[in-house]
Amino acid sequence: MKIALIGYGKMGHAIESIAKERGHTIVSVVDIDNPEAFDSSQFLSADAAIEFSQPQSAYNNYLKCFERNVPVVAGTTGWLDRWNEIKSLCDKGNHTFFYASNYSIGVNIFFAVNKYLSKMMNHFPSYDVGMEEIHHIHKLDSPSGTGITLAEQILGNIERKKQWKESVEGSKEDLLIRSKREGEVPGFHEVIYESDVDTIRIQHNAKSRKGFALGAVLAAEFVKGKKGFFSMNDMLDF
Ligand SMILES: NC(=O)c1ccc[n+]([C@@H]2O[C@H](COP(=O)([O-])OP(=O)(O)OC[C@H]3O[C@@H](n4cnc5c(N)ncnc54)[C@H](O)[C@@H]3O)[C@@H](O)[C@H]2O)c1
User: Fold this and answer.
1) With a 6 A CB cut-off, is 137 part of the ligand 1 pocket?
2) Is 135 an active-site residue?
3) Would you say the CB of residue 78 lies under 6 angstroms from ligand 1?
4) pTM of the full predicted structure?
5) Share of the chain above pLDDT 70, in %
6) Which atom of ligand 1 is nearest to the CA of 75?
7) By C-alpha distance, which of 96, 9, 97, 4 is closest to 42?
8) Separation of 57 CA from ligand 1 center, angstroms?
9) Which of 8, 11, 64, 236 has most ligand 1 atoms within 8 Å of its beta carbon, as the pocket-test mutant?
10) CB of 75 closer than 6 angstroms to any ligand 1 atom
């Protein structure tokens, strides 16, 4: 496949090496200093563009891909206030857009376990539920996109929790998320159920960025030749 990269930072580099390992060609690399590359023949020839840039630039980059009819695999987090706009532009223009708050296959297994466990724990009000996420100090958004996905899954299943709150204290109805920024941690997420008599914890700990990069390349392979708005559920079919 011909792949364009938008954003050539930590993730862009990790994706480049996995894509090459899987036999793909990186035809174009766009970063903040060379937006003119969007109009190059190489970019226009791409079967998919994989976008991992920054929260404030992601939306415009998606529009540029739509305008050029290049399918997008979107990895940047922190832009979800514009979700409805992107969904509607994708649908109206018959474009291709794939988004995952976390491309790691392991995290998506963790999401499935989180859904299952929270459904079960709805019937056990003696347990309070909380979350912790830890990322490297360069991360711009907080809580993490993965943390928000986990929180929304829990809120969808546990009736005694009404909203998530990024804090160490709140009311009984708040699902508290403790976000920490430490060193170079690639991504740690934990969901904790606590009663007077015991604790149940489920956690995912990424050892490197490789798992996210592989998932993004698999998503690019998945969207080839498809139109529509896709997520990991479409690709993994749990
Ligand atoms: N969905 C996932 O699985 C997943 C996994 C890891 C990281 N992320 C997210 O991906 C994003 C990037 O992460 P990173 O660790 O590579 O960050 P990074 O800071 O290392 O790299 C970001 C790159 O984007 C570039 N950039 C800035 N503005 C741009 C613009 N207008 N156009 C093109 N490029 C631009 C920067 O110059 C930089 O090279 C973050 O939002 C992060 O939270 C998502």
Assistant:
1) no
2) yes
3) yes
4) 0.89
5) 100
6) 1
7) 4
8) 9
9) 11
10) yes
Band (pLDDT 50/70/90 cuts) for residue 41 is: very high
Q: One-letter amino acid identity for 156?
A: G
Q: Give me the mean pLDDT over the 63-91 stretch.
A: 97
pLDDT in tens, 110-152: 999 999 999 999 999 999 999 999 999 999 899 999 999 999 9
Active site residue 139: yes
Residues 6+ apart with CB under 8 A from 109: 238
* 57 close to ligand 1 (CB < 6 Angstrom): yes
> How far is Cα 37 from Cα 29, in angstroms, rounded to an integer?
7
**How high is the pLDDT of residue 237?**
81
